[in-house]
Amino acid sequence: MSQVVEKSKASRPRKPDVSAERWLRMYRQMARIREFEEKVNELYTSALMPGLAHLYIGQEAVAVGTCEALRQDDYITSTHRGHGHCLAKGASVDRMFAELLGKEAGYCRGKGGSMHIADPESGNLGANAIVGGSAGIATGAALSAKRRGTGQVVACFFGEGALGQGVLYEVMNLAQLWKLPVIYVCENNLYGEYTHYTEVAAGELTARPKAFGIQTDTVDGQRVQSVYEKMTGLVERARDGEGPAFLLCNTYRYRGHHVGDIDRSYYRTKEEEQEWMARRDPLRLLADWLIDQGRGDQETLAQIHTEAKAEIEAGADFALNAPYPQVSEVDRHVYA
Ligand SMILES: Cc1ncc(C[n+]2csc(CCOP(=O)(O)OP(=O)(O)O)c2C)c(N)n1
């Protein structure tokens, strides 16, 4: 048995050999998420969308780098800031917009909204409005995959704010004891609502999973290459039965905590925002690298953006023109 593990470790490539086509696909996915979120903001500010949304703009590389390293039948769990995770795992733009606009064609027939998008077909076990709430679901799914022997891996997304929730420590403990195939993907975008994380989290964030002996790594969450490469290794390791991992992704949300959080001057400066957007933009960083490496050119990248924008516009039009559910089914599919 140990020989098998040794062999798999030895043959595991340090860096995946990634084709230009694959990097361009990641660029496309990030562009789709960016355009989707811009459209959500537009719909909200035009009073066409009910409820609120927590935009993922700025963090695209984390969702895309993670989901690209997964198989179609692997699972993810998501958060209140979940549109990027859902799209990266394969959700349909049409059905997502329909859900956000309360239409029958939505993932929850229009009854869940932005924070309740689940898509079993693409392995998305659901967004979750409860901070830290998906950690138990992700770890349970990993236990199930292990017991069924399917080789599936689970990526559990959460913000650094979720490290204030006790459930994370309960599940990390069991995941390590039982060597479950789950990767805890912590997106540190510096703020939980309107508070810098250093005001509420004592010590190092990575000291927490390390205390359980969990394999822990930190990456630049603005570089999709780093997220993808690190995730690929962690996923292979989990699939080989070597247990859970924790990946801290350092990132930044460009916009407010939610679409209504416009004046942010009381908790962060404009200079800070501009610095991240100008120097640390995930799309820009990948574009520059692709061009530098001769794996893409301006024209191709511009074309990808145009196509992404057209797809998003068509999806929003579909949803705006789609029917609402019948009034008679107001309490159907509603469990609580
Ligand atoms: C259990 C729980 N407590 C409080 C909230 C209110 N709340 C919503 S989002 C949020 C901040 C979460 O910060 P973080 O986990 O870092 O994610 P981010 O919003 O930065 O993506 C809070 C406190 C909640 N939804 N659930």
Written overview of the protein:
By secondary structure, the chain is of the alpha/beta class. The chain has twelve helices and seven strands. The strands form two sheets. A five-stranded parallel β-sheet has the order 1-2-3-7-6, sandwiched between helices. It has a two-stranded antiparallel sheet with strand order 4-5. The structure holds thiamine diphosphate. Thiamine diphosphate binds next to strand 4.
* CATH level 1 class label: Alpha Beta
Strand order of the largest sheet: 1-2-3-7-6
Q: Structural class given helices, strands, pairing?
A: alpha/beta
The biggest beta sheet reads:
5 strands, parallel
CATH architecture tag: 3-Layer(aba) Sandwich
Radius of gyration (CA) equals 20 Å
Which fold does the CATH topology refer to? Rossmann fold
Could you estimate the helical fraction of the residues in percent?
Answer: 40-55%
Amino- and carboxy-terminal Cα gap: 47 Å
How many domains make up the coordinates?
1
Poorly predicted spans:
1-8
Can you say what the CATH homologous superfamily is? Thiamin diphosphate (ThDP)-binding fold, Pyr/PP domains
- The SSE string, one letter per element, is HHHEHHHEHEEEHEHEHHH
Which overall shape is indicated by the principal axes computed on the Cα atoms?
globular
Count up the helices.
Answer: 12
